[in-house]
Design brief:
- It is elongated and about 90 Å long.
- It is an alpha/beta fold and 241 residues long.
- 47% of the residues lie in helices and 12% in strands.
């Protein structure tokens, strides 16, 4: 499935490119595109800042223009916090993530544009985008650096993708069903009743509930219930002998 391309337009510092790559790989994104990086590419300052995200840097594509960088895309977001007076929808990273996943399901390429560190995207860049992406930050201090902006967008995309590996079953033989667990409860209560454990009739129900809660909290597997039933039978048989 196509994943969003992170396009850094005229990035100025190699360190910031490395930090952006690190942010991307933390959330499974690897399509990094650079438009006219100020200091050329490759940049030796990018590697140390990437903290191991070398594959992202090695695979980065370099373009002379934004037009070339977005040529294969069908949905492009321009990341900016400033009002540009353009007739474009403004979305948050979470809304953009929903739309990018929908496009990905259709096997369409999407991208997010990030501007130079000092000035951000200009109007000629933004006009190539379908929508404006704005992070809802503090209105009195909306100062995100490049890597922070990238990590927010990458996190939102990854969150919707539910990229976390499925939790492995806790028990190879399967967790005990409620039917099995109730059978264990009744078995234990029956044997305890024979031994006079429930001495007070008015305390019988609270004691039963306490025992059932204890067994419920144990989170038994199928085999563990069978083992417990065997222990109860063995104790009851030994008492008879």
């Amino acid at each position: 499935m196509p994943q969003p391309a992170i396009i850094l337009v005229r990035p100025q510092l190699g360190e910031n490119i490395g930090k952006a790559a690190r942010a991307m790989l933390n959330f499974g994104l690897t399509d990094l595109r650079l438009v006219a990086p100020r200091d050329g590419w490759p940049n030796p300052s990018a590697g140390p800042s990437a903290s191991g995200a070398d594959d992202v840097l090695d695979q980065a594509k370099v373009f002379d223009t934004v037009e070339a960088a977005v040529a294969d895309c069908t949905l492009v977001f321009a990341s900016t916090v400033r009002e540009r007076g353009m007739p474009k929808s403004v979305v948050t990273p979470s809304e953009a993530a929903v739309q990018m996943h929908a496009a990905s399901d259709r096997l369409e390429q999407t991208a997010i544009l990030f501007g130079p560190e000092r000035s951000g995207l200009d109007n000629d860049d933004i006009v190539l985008a379908d929508k404006i992406l704005t992070v809802p930050v503090n209105r009195d201090f909306g100062s995100l650096n490049l890597a922070q902006a990238v990590v927010l967008c990458a996190w939102e995309y990854n969150r919707l993708a539910d990229a976390t590996a499925p939790e492995q079953p806790a028990f190879p033989d399967g967790q005990a069903s409620k039917e099995m667990l109730i059978g264990l409860m009744e078995h234990l209560e029956g044997e305890l009743d024979k031994k006079g454990y429930f001495r007070s009739e008015d305390r019988r129900d609270p004691q039963r509930r306490t025992l059932r809660n204890l067994l419920q909290h144990a989170n038994f597997s199928h085999q563990e219930v069978m083992t417990m039933r065997g222990i109860i039978k063995s104790l009851a048989r030994a008492d008879k002998d």
